[in-house]
Amino acid sequence: MSSELGDFLRSRRAALTPAATGIRTYGASRRVPGLRREEVAQLAGVSVNYYTRIEQGESHQMSDSVLDALANALRLDETERLHLVRLARPAAVPRRPAGPETIRDSVLALAESTTDQAVIVVGRRTDLLGANRLGYALLGLRTDERPNMARQMFLEPAMRDLVVDWEREARNTVAYLRNASSDALDDPMLAELVGDLSIRSPEFARIWATHPVAECLHAVRDWDHPLVGRLTLNEESLRLPDDPGQRIIFNGAAPGSASAERLRLLASLVTSPPDGLVLPE
């Protein structure tokens, strides 16, 4: 995990510029992207030697003040700050069960009882654990399918047609997995997923190397659905406190919008498909 910490810090200082942080430069050519180590150390108020040892994984038990100073120097948001703390203090991260995840009957019943929104339930490794019929229809899946959504995003060609801004959604997927990886240490199934995607998808490997981190709890997403056309949906993702890492995700359209009409059309096609139309079962 010390190498993860160093990689994360390097990725964040590479993403910053002296101008963005108020550091003055004097025209000398820069051989590194972003900030140098000594510039981060200066901003954080620590010695260059100490900061170098942190990046190299040789410094342990950083104080709260040092972690706060580094987070401020690197302009980290709240999710990135928490990620930094977990990487710096892996012993304090609670261990999650390593086996396959299951969905509680009451959670599935909640998803299935919602008829005007597409609802899916996703686990901490982005496995699809359940959904209502409209949720399956939105994703173009059969009701008996339980794919891993990260694999769907990067390895299923149809997702590139379904998701309008594929690059953004792909980055969001990686950012969520990065966040999950520091919140579920020593999870062999999660490590296997990341390794498999890194080998099979050059795009995943490229994005993973930049260390994006995000919670992805709400968003506005555009879909280009093969049955009903363009949908602009508001996504709200709610964590399930009794099932760490699991989320129930609601996708709904603004009332009175064209997307609301198309979502209702998709719902009607799911419940009563016209003659000749074959829908996933």
From TrEMBL:
<protein>
    <submittedName>
        <fullName>Transcriptional regulator with XRE-family HTH domain</fullName>
    </submittedName>
</protein>
<dbReference type="Pfam" id="PF17765">
    <property type="entry name" value="MLTR_LBD"/>
</dbReference>
<dbReference type="InterPro" id="IPR010982">
    <property type="entry name" value="Lambda_DNA-bd_dom_sf"/>
</dbReference>
<dbReference type="InterPro" id="IPR001387">
    <property type="entry name" value="Cro/C1-type_HTH"/>
</dbReference>
<dbReference type="GO" id="GO:0003677">
    <property type="term" value="F:DNA binding"/>
</dbReference>
<dbReference type="Pfam" id="PF13560">
    <property type="entry name" value="HTH_31"/>
</dbReference>
<feature type="domain" description="HTH cro/C1-type">
    <location>
        <begin position="34"/>
        <end position="81"/>
    </location>
</feature>
<dbReference type="InterPro" id="IPR041413">
    <property type="entry name" value="MLTR_LBD"/>
</dbReference>
